[in-house]
Amino acid sequence: MKxxxxxxxxxxxxxxxxxxxxxKLAQKNVKEGTPLLGLCEKIEKFIEDEGGKPAFPxxxxxxxxxxHFTPSxxxxxxxxxxxxxxxxxxxxxxxxxxxxxxxxxxxxEFGKMLEASEGALESALSAAMPGIGVxxxxxxxxxxxxxxxxxxxxxxxxxxxxxxxxxxxxxIPNTSSKDxxxxxxxxxxxxxxxxxxxxxxxxxGVQAEIFGFDEKKPLRSMTGRKISDLVEKxxxxxxxxxxxxVKKMKMSDFERKTALRELxxxxxxxxxxxxxxxxxxxxxxxxTTILVEDKDILVLVx
Length: 302
Ligand code: MN
Ligand code: MN
Description:
By secondary structure, this protein is of the alpha+beta class.
């Protein structure tokens, strides 16, 4: 992985500062009756107005849904007063990506679980420094979450970030592990503890609204070729939502569905299925992005 140069450092800092403001906007707007679709579009527009781009569609994962949910283009879903909502946002400036999330508890019943994921992130940030092993960070996260009486979600992890790559190696586990790969100066990482009162495992659901581009493939469908051109040019391999295609291209629902099916079959794109807690229990998440420097770390999203 190429190290972050001076010019990129300032782009990462700007990206993180736009993301901090976007998270505040989320915190202000997630309340009973707010449409999920309206919230995501508002945040994505805010990011562009500030001179950034969404690094992936705004994720709004509620209750037992841990990650990868974004509303469909025709969603009428609104937040209810018993929702625990994780809003996960990515911003990039010229491929310099920051990734951060916040959990908002509208039920008022899961404050302790919020403290567990937030506390685990705080502890991991205190421990993070150049040279620390990622397994050690996992141990810190696990300890903090268990201390509060919850379980970490063991098959969701933090990750490295590279230019134009939102999820790069190494994974940063949320449980103790022997993985001795170290945080390296000049590199960017997202740390994201998840806490739950369930089993501590997520599995893939059927629904997918978010996709990632892999490579160009010969396609039968004209709409498929148009989608492929658009996502290669505009998103450069970063994840995109079906609802973004609806906004950008004129096509019938049937044409779009058929084209997406062909793109998936030919492995030109892949889906990010919604991830649910195995027992259907509540999940909370905290996340930020750091830049590791020579002697210290810089927290990019505060
Ligand atoms: Mn995230
Ligand atoms: Mn992440």
